[in-house]
């Protein structure tokens, strides 16, 4: 069969999420495409990484030029495999992607179409919906078709920033990673590592909570250098003002901006994203990223927790620190389920019976430090000055869209946004 640029290529992961992707394609997507006389080709993945191999075949069939439209029936991991395979295309093709959320968490889809806001986009497509075959009219099914509706309505797709990570070693060897949802270390990466061991027994999102309990009382020793080439320099979110400004480390200087700052650990949480505000439909871990969804600004949004800044933990007795660190971690990160309210929490300035409670937009410094910049370097320090009573985690572990990698001993991870290439690369219908 001769494949043209007008063909919609559907990449289906049959085991993603609850394993219903193939059924969804045959019962919902194909009837819609046939009803609208849209040419399509279906590809089914057969092994891990196969989405990237399929993408390469599509690229060759499309003669390495022009616009190619692809539908991803799977989750963030399937899209990651596809994207990682296409990072070698060097911007020759403009990939326009339709998302069908059939993964476990569907972070990108949930960020582009927040569940609480779905009535509005559904209403805007009501005329189109009424023309479709009736099996696609359930509320759950309609929600999963919002990206397709945007494509059918000829809405311009939005640019999808890609994060490039280089893992380097003292010997000069490097490993290149691409990610489109999240790049993390510390607790988030540790949770992903342990959650994979629980996938068979706990296939749903509950496995992440179990893994969190196993890692919430660990410290991760590293330093990170944030960099920005903009005139504003590196910026930090100030919940007391509800605005971006100079990082707290330099606010008392006369410098109008700071293009490079170094933050010393230990850390309990470190996560960066440029595209999503949530990792699950209701887990809004990076709410400040939402302003970047439909207008490319070129920022990495970095969410950091350094627990020893909190006297509730640092001034606790050694035998109590592990329990207190875990308690605080769940208290703070749990606020991500309240529409990202964790970024509004501040450290109490009062020493009332040494309770060291948290405040909402109080006068103290933020509990969660949120920065935006355009690149950074994470350097594991393997600090031997451990904090008594607290375990240390693997600070060399890196998570890129759920795929785990390890920084070589003595090496680092350098992270930056890929340059936007004259309208080429990845775009998503949103």
Automatic annotation (TrEMBL):
Coiled coil: none annotated. Residues 3-130 form the DAGKc domain. InterPro entries: ATP-NAD_kinase_N, Diacylglycerol_kinase_cat_dom, Lipid_Phosphate_FormReg, NAD/diacylglycerol_kinase_sf. One of its GO terms (biological process) is sphingosine biosynthetic process. Pfam families: DAGK_cat. GO terms for molecular function: lipid kinase activity. One of its GO terms (cellular component) is cytoplasm. It comes from the Eukaryota. PROSITE patterns: DAGK. PANTHER family: DAGKC DOMAIN-CONTAINING PROTEIN, SPHINGOSINE KINASE. This is DAGKc domain-containing protein.
